[in-house]
Structures are given as structure tokens and as C-alpha cells.
Amino acid sequence: MKNNGRFIKRAMVIGGGIAGISASIDIGNAGYEVVLVEKLPSIGGRMLQLSETFPTLDCAQCTLTPKTVETGQHPHIKLLTYSEVDQVEGKAGDFTVRVRRKAAYVDWEKCTGCGLCQEKCPSKKPSEFDRSMGLGKAIYTLSPQAVPNKPVINPSNCRYFLEKKCRVCEKVCPVGAIDYEQQDRFVEEKVGAIISAVGFDLLPMETFGEYGYGAVPDVIDGLAFERLNSASGPTTGAIQRPSDGKIPKEVVFIQCTGSRDPERYKPYCSRVCCMYTAKHARLYKHKVHDGQVYIFYMDIRSTGKGYEEFIQQGIEEEGILYLRGRVSRIFRDDGRIVIWGVDTLTGKKVEVSADMVVLATAIIPQGEAKELAQRLGIYTDEHGFFTEAERKLRPVETNREGIYLAGCAQGPKDIADAVAHANGAASKVQALFAKN
Amino acid sequence: MEYLYFPGCTLYTKAKNFDQTARDCSLLLGFELKELPNWTCCGATFPLATDNIMALLPPSRILAKAREEGTTLTTLCAICFNVIKRTNRLIQNDGEKRDKINNFIEMNYQGDLRILHYLEIMKQEIGFSQIKEKVKKPLAGLKAAAYYGCMLLRPFDEMGFDDKERPTLLEEFLEAMGAEPVDFPYKIECCGSFQSVGSPEVATECSYKILSSAIKNGAEVVVSTCPMCTFNIDHKQSDIKEKYLSFKPIPVLYFTQILGMAMGLDYQTLGFEQNFVDPLPLLKEKGFV
Description:
Chain A has 436 residues and is an alpha/beta fold. Chain A has helices at residues 18-29, 60-73, 116-120, 159-163, 168-172, 222-229, 273-287, 307-318, 369-376, 415-435, and strands at residues 10-14, 33-37, 52-53, 58-59, 77-80, 83-91, 94-101, 124-126, 135-137, 139-140, 152-153, 185-191, 193-196, 200-202, 219-221, 250-257, 292-297, 321-324, 327-333, 336-343, 348-354, 356-361, 363-365, 403-405.
């Protein structure tokens, strides 16, 4: 790819979540080539883990899959999944990016995506994608609609890598695509602009001593609840608590777990928890009609379009009980979970005994975001989110020309805002390409 | 090895058994408690008001006098430990208050004492694995609930004693003694503290919850680190029994009494006569005495 001193009108998008996908499609549709780098085996990001989305309650996969498929089939988008950015050199119009393509131990050129290897793989370990709500195989794709639909082997779960025996996948693969000797390899891509859309993570439940350091059974986080509630999830959408598979009849949701707590955890608002907790509560009520939901909240921040109505509907029509106050402790007693909190509106201490607890844990940047920022030569704030060029007027640009931000990597956002942010980043890239 | 020792008022009265067993055991563990001369009351509460210098003077005076005698000060009572450790930290970090205090007490103390709880000496200075080797009569099969109360742990940033939500130091100690620690959710809950004076029913209720949770989780004995807690969860068991007829009393022992038993001290020197709920029937049944 010779550029001969010319401005390279080719973009890289790092992160294949809804923000990265949206930006890639926009730039691709404008006629420019895009390289989309995703660290997981397939694109879709966090949204792929969600069951339904607020405020419309439509199925996340149903709205996302057309986008992932479009990305996969787009003539101008080159997918580099299971890959990470290793090194970035150059400047706007002439970046050279070294990308590490992680060893999948499967030759994707040969693989037809038949799925036989996953079916026969004997290793079953708690699945990270399912937030440990279910078991996953050592050779896996993230979903049946994965784009690309090619599996990878997780060596830390694989019997062959751990014990040097098994090789079942190799035996059953009809095209001989399994390659245990595969190594990471590096490719170089030349691009003129980069969008960093690496998304978010959740503050681990192990952080919260008062909530049992993640060790109290049936205390799960918001993403785990999404997996429980997903038709594609480990329970095919049945709300069953993880300890014994029983249907929980009383569920407590705790908002602001780790958010808005400057003394101990994160001072900022994670922005999506009020809405997704209301959504969880309503979806739970749709499935467990005689169930009771309690939501502990500090304030309800429902500032998006149709959001407040969504909350009100939950309270008025679905009988969701909101308790204004925080929870000081959670522990297990007699097979149930005891929640100690306070109702600040009555000024009384509250004790609730529940079957399951869902913590709306704070949104934090991805673990590797800081390192990536260093490679890109951009700044992160004190919490590790990427810093935009100017808080109000330049929300998708960075301190470096040619490098832009999209989605939650810049700060907590809901899907609508992340997509709008990504659209903004994509149009900045197009403008940059058009004027050079 | 010698550590300066501040007993505090209760250990000379209601908790003599705590004091005596700690002194006896220390010799077996290879260190000596050197009692501070002319010590006074610690003040019993760390002031919540930031301008209450007066309340800081008694512990400051103790600290200043102790510094003349040595470099490391130890205590047993969780309340004394809390007050002394926090005052010491304040003197270390707040130059303005340090000057004011020193002017008041007419001494010059810079906050350079090390304050260690007896349990911390065992864990950090000696090590539970070393202590385990010195155990003569392991308390095999004794199901013991470690009750921390609040004063050892909170405020966490100032005390730095152990994990504030899920401490394990006492459990480690119990394991070294050969006993079986019982986990129970109320192990760091408040015993009711001084409410036992003004609103005794509050303290009774707190103690009832702590004890019944320990019992429900299989405890045969509750292990305490604090004379105040012990007053509430041991001595108040008669009040609990009056209110909750089906409540079955459970012995409450100081951790030093557990230590003494395991180190092979004669049970008659362990001061069990001061324990309100007599532990001897249980200990005899278990074959420890």
C-alpha cells in the first residue's frame, strides 16, 4: 500500500461494539476503506450480551445482528477479529499500525463454521461471555450468529493445552482446520485516521466488601442478569438463580453500586444503570408474574427520550417498588439473601430477604484502554476514560489529529448516545479525508 | 522481647480475666508486657467533633508518657486500642493539633510510637504458624465464632487492622489454636456498645441478633476481643433470656482465654469465674479442661 506522500484515505476502527460497527459502516458507506479491529473472536461487543434494550424493549440481537452482518459483508470493511493493536506510528494521513492477530488455533481460511467442534468439545467451564451464568466450551464462538462465524480455542480451558490429551476437535473437524501449533502473528495496516471505540467494563463485584466481595451466591451484576434473561443465554431466557436454578420470587436491584461514591469507589454517574435496572425489573415481571421487585436507588436519572415514561410505566403498571436509599450490607442467611438498607424517605432502616440480588455496578474503562491510549498518543482522564479534545464542543476529537473517539471508551453512554457519538466520529473522519 | 502495655480501666475490674490471661500467655509466647507506670483512662471515645482537643488530651498524655519508656505500645481492649491508635495517627499527621496538644499536656510528643494490638503482635511480630507450634492442647472440634465488633476495624483508613468488611485475623488465630472457626454474618456488627446504659433494650436486641446468628451457624462458643462487647453479649444474656424464652445461652470467651487453654495453662488461672455464662460445662465436655 504505497502512499507516496499522499494522504491515506483509509480508516481504522478499534473495537467492534455498537459504536465501532456504526462508525465503520458510516465510513464504509462513504466509499472509504475501513479496517475494523476487534479483540474478541467476533464483533458485536457488549450489546451482544444484552437481552432487550430500553426504552423500546426490543431484542438487542434482533437490532444488532443486521448491523454485524452488514459489517461482515460490507465491501469496504476489512475485519480483523481476535486481534489487538500493538503499535501505532505516524501521523494523520499516514499511520502505520501493527496489529497482533491472536492465535485462534483454528485455520479460519479452512474453517466452514459448521460448529461440530463446539458440539463435541468435552471441556465445560464457566463462560466469560455469559458472565459465569452458564458453561462454555474451550473451542467456541460468542454466539450462533457470530460474525465472523469462526471459532477459537481458549488454551486455559482446553484439555489438549492443559493435559496434552483430547484433540477431539481435531478429530471431528471435517476440513482439518484445527491447528494447535498456531502462533500469534503480526500484520501492518496503513491508515489515515483511527477511531478508538474500545468500550467499557464493569467494576468487578469482588470490589464490594459490604456486598460480600462477589462471594455471596445469587448476587450477580447487571450483565449477568442480561445473560440470564437472554433467549440466547445459558437458561434460554428463563430467570433462574444461579445457585440452585430456582425461579427467584423476590429480587432486589441495587443501583449506583460503586457509582456516585467518591469516598470509596467512582465519583461519576454511570448513566445507564437507572434505565437498565428499570428494564431488568420490568422484564423480570414479564416472566415471573407473581414475583416482587425492590429497587434501591439514590435518584432516578431518566433523561433520554421516552426514558421517564418507561420508568413511570414500570412503577404504575408493573408494581415495581422503588426504595430511596442505599444498601449497607448483603449476606446469606438460610438460603436467602438478606439486604440491609435504608429508606431515606421514611427515615427507617429496611431489611429485605430476597432470592436474588442484581448489582448495577459502575461502568469503568476496559483494562487495556490506558495502554492503548499510550500507543495512540492520546490522554486518559483520572478514571481511565479517553479524553476528548474539548468537553463540550469537540467530543469526538482527541489531542491528536486523525485520532477520534466513539462510545463508552470516552465515558459512560447508552446505546443511542454511543451510536450518535460514533456517527460523529465517522463524519469527522470523512471530513478529514474529503479535505485532504 | 518487651512491649509497653496499656491495660485500661476495664482490664483492672470487669475484665481481669482478659488482662491476666494475656500477661500469662505472653510469657509462653516469648514476650513480656511491661505495664506503663501511672497510666490513666484513655478517654473511652475518640471525639467526633474536630475541634474537641480536650477529649484528645488523656490518650495524648498516655502516648507521650509511653514514648519516654519505649517505642511500641500494645493494648487489649478494643476501645482503648481505637482511641489510642487514632489519637496517635492524628498527632502524626496534624501538626497544628499536635502543637496544641503538646502545649496543653506540657510534653513534646511527635506521634512516633508504634501502636499494636495484642492480636497484631501475634500475627505480625510472631506469626500464627510459629504460635501454632507452641500449642500444647489443640482445641480440636471447638466450633468458635470470631466476633470482632466495630472498634478494632473502623474507621478502616485509620485503624488498618484487617479487611473492614470481611476480617479474617481472628479466624486465623482460631485455626492456629486448633479450633474450628464458624463464619457468621454478624461478626462485625455493633454489640450496642454504651446503649446498654441509656437504652438497654437496644443493646439487648443487638446482642441477641449477634448470638443467635452465631448459634444458628453452629457456634458453641463466641470469641470476643473487647470488654464492652463482652459485657453486652455475655452479661446481657440474662436479659436476652427474659425476652426470648427459647434462647439458649452460649459462652463468650476472650481470645486470650482460648489462647491460654491451647497453650496448656491450668484452667483455674484462666478466670472463667468472671465469665457470665459458665463455659466450664462445655469445655469439660469437650475435654479441654
